[in-house]
Predict the 3D structure of the following.
Amino acid sequence: MPGKYRESTVLEGQRAKLKPPSLFKVILLNDDYTPMEFVVIVLQRFFAKDREQATQIMLKVHREGRGLCGVYPRDIAATKVEQVLAFANEHQHPLQCVMEET
Ligand code: TYC
């Protein structure tokens, strides 16, 4: 298709095919051994929660078995899970963290 608007026509064609990225929940799981204070630190360090928010989420996980830390695009969610598991392993805590598509 000749003409001076050809390039923008191609760009619009590509734009129309893009879907918004899938989002993933990052979820912390309860266990009987990880100290509460360690979980609060994890939520502050990796999920940008303040101490009050972190404490509420930790207590929810402790009482209900699991709790939402945040919602992110796939790669960021996967990195958060890796960071939490590496940090827990370093400190020899069995804390588990998973991601789930929303
Ligand atoms: N249940 C743990 C305890 O009593 C605390 C805990 C909370 C562990 C949240 C993991 O994701 C977790 N020490």
About this structure: The mean pLDDT is 90. Strands lie at 23-29, 66-73, 96-101.
